[in-house]
Amino acid sequence: MYLHELKLWNFRKYGIVGDVFESSEPGLKIEFKKGVNVLVGENDSGKTTIIDAIRYVLRTQSLEYIQIEEKDFYQNRSSGQRALEMKIECTFRNFSNEEAGHFLEWIGFETTGEDNTNDYFLKVWLYARNKDNSIYQYVRAGIDAEGSYIEGEARDLLRVVYLKPLRDALSEMTHGSKSRLAQILKSHSIFKKKKDAHGNEIEHELEIKYKTLKENVDNFFDISKTENGSNITKTINQLLSEKFFLGKDPRKAGITLTGSDLVDILKQLDLILEKNKSGLGSLNLLFIAAELLLFRDAKSGLKLTLIEELEAHLHPQYQLRLIDFINTHNEYGQFILTTHSTTLASKIDLSSLIVCNEEYVFPMGEGNTILRASDYKFLERFLDATRANLFFAKGVIIVEGDAENLLIPTIAEIIDRPLHRYGVSIVNVGSTAYKRYANIFVRKEKPVFVVKVAIISDLDVKSLECYKDSVPTVTVVEENFIDKLKLVTQDIYYDNIPEFFINRKEFEDFIKNNKSVARFEKQHEGQTSISEQLLQLFIEEPQKPLDEDILSSIRKKKKERIESQWRDKLPVKIYLPEQWTLEYEIASSKLYKYLCQAIELAKIEQLNSNFSAKDDDYISKKNDANELYDADVLTDKKQIYDVFCRVYEGTVSKAIVAQYLAQILTNEKNNANIQEMIYSTTHLKYIVDAICYVTEPLIVEPKNPE
Known about the structure:
- The protein contains 25 helices and 22 strands.
- Among the domains are: 2-32 and 49-165, Rossmann fold (3-Layer(aba) Sandwich), CATH 3.40.50; 205-263, no CATH class; 377-461 and 571-694, no CATH class; 472-545, no CATH class.
- A hairpin with a 2-residue loop joins strand 14 (353-357) and strand 15.
- It has 706 residues and is α/β, with parallel strands linked by helices.
- Helices cover 38% and strands 15% of the residues.
- Helix 20 packs across helix 23.
C-alpha cells in the first residue's frame, strides 16, 4: 500500500474552490508515486504544509503530540477572517490482500484498467472545526462521506516515519525517557515478547543479561559489601542521617541500575558511530538508518517516510549517496521529501519532482508538461546543480552562453532591477536546447506556473560582412520550398532547416543529419529515390546573390517564426535580437567602445596568464577606444563587423571578453549616461524587455477569488 493522493480543504495557505464547504472542491489536490516524491520550491511555497497535513492525519511512529491550532485554518487574505472548518484527506492504493485485511471495516474497491481488475482503496480523513474558541477534531475512514472512526491497530498501521527539518539527531539517538532509539527498537520484531504454552510472557534474552549486570553493579555499591563503591554509599548515608534527616529516620540511600523490564533497558541505550563525537552530518545519516530499520523489519502496514530538508547537515556527496539509496531500495517503501538543495534536485528523476509554486503544486512527470519522452532523457543527463536552481526561483532567464550569463545581471543592476532582489535565476543551457528547459514550465492544462520564464536567444543570421571573400549566391528557404519537400517525405526534422543554403553540399548535409528515420523508405522499381527527389527540388529552386534585403527579410521571418512558437506558452516568453548575437548587438549599440576595451584586455590576458587588470589598464584601453572611434554609435556595417569579428572568429575568448565587459559596465554604473545608453538603443531592447518581464509579477486568475 502507498499514499496515492492528498486533498486539503482550508488547511493553512490552501483554501477551497467554491462557496460552501460541504460541496466545495479541495484547495489542493496532489498525487504521489509509489517510490520517491520530492517537493521543491522557494521558501513558504507549501512544502512543509503538505508534509504536516500528512502527519496530522496519519500520526508518526515517534508518537509525537499533534494538535490542530487556530493558525492551521485557512485565512482569507482580503478579509483576514479564518475558516471555521478544515479537512485533510489521504487516499491509499495498491493493497496486498494481507494489508487490506487490516482495514476491512473501511476499505473499498473499484474496477480499473482494461482488464477490469478490482483495486482496493482506503480514504482516511481528518476533520476539524473551530467553535466557540475551541477546536474539535476527529479522524474517520470509509468509502462514503460519513465514514467511521478508525482507531486501534488499524490506526497504528498508518503511522509514518517523520524526520523534521534541522533535526537534532544526537538527542534522538541518546538514552533517556524520550529516546527515539528506544521507540524504534521496542517496535522491532527482535524485541517482541514471546509467550509460553500457558500464555505467560517469556523473559527476553536481553532482560536476563541485564539482570546479571544489574546484580553486579548493585553489589558494587551495596552498603553491606566491602567493594570500593560501598564507601560512597556509606558516606552519603552518613551525611543524610547525621546532618540532613530529622530524628531517627530509618531510610537508607542506595546506588543501583534502575529499571528491569525491556522498555527500561532500551531507554538506556545510545546509538553511536564512533567513540569520539561525530559531526552533525554523520549523526544525521545514523538517525535515518535507524528509522529505516523498522520498515525493513515490517511485514504489513504503511511504509511511508516523510523527510523535511533531506540535505540537513549533509555535504553534496552524502546527499547524492543518500538519494541514490532511496531511489534504488524499494523495500523501504514510499518517501516524500522536501529539499532546497540544487544538488539533489539535479539528480532526482524529473518525474519524481513536485514543484510547489504559490497556491499550486506542479508534478513534473510525463503527462503533466509538454515535454516529450526524449526531453526527459535529455534533462536527466544535463540538468546539473547549476541549472536545477530554476526550481527554486521566482523568475528564470534561460540563456545559451557565457556572455549572456555574465552580462545580463550587470545590465539588470544598471537599470535598477537587480536579479537577486527579485529572486530571478539565470540558467545557462550552453546550447540551443533552451526549448527543453523552458518546456518544463509549460503545462498541458491549467493552472499556469506563477514563475516568469524568459528565453534570451541569438537570432543567428550572419551579417553580409561575414562573407569576406565573395558574396555567395544562395537558395533561400521559403515556405513553398519546405512544402515541396514535405510532399516527398515527412521523415525530416524541418524545424531545423536553415534560412538559406549556400551550396548543394550544405543541403545534402542537412538531409543526412536531420532524417527522423534510419533510412528513407524504398521506392518502387525504377522510381527515383527520395534523396534524389529532394536534391532535384533543391537544384530547381532559384538562387539569388545574398544582399542586405534578403538578410533583412530572413531575419524578420525567422524572428516571427520563433516568436510564434512561444506565443501561447505562458509563463514562457522568448526575446530575440534584431540581427545576430548579443556581442554583435553591443557592437551596433552605444556600448561598442566598452566592447573594444574588453576585447583588448582579454587579448592581454590570453597572452599573459598572470595578467590582472588594474584601474590604469581600464583607463588606458578606454582612451585607446576613444582615439580610435569618435562616433557615439557605429553606422558603418564594416566597422561594426570589425569590432565584433575578433569575438566571432575566436581571436579572443567570448567568456573572458564578457567578464571584462561586465566589470567595465559595473565600473561605469555611477555614470549618469550609462543607463540612458542602454535604454536608448534598440539593439539592447530585447535584453531590457526580458529583464523587465521576469522582474514584474505574473498576473493569473486566482484559485480562490476574494
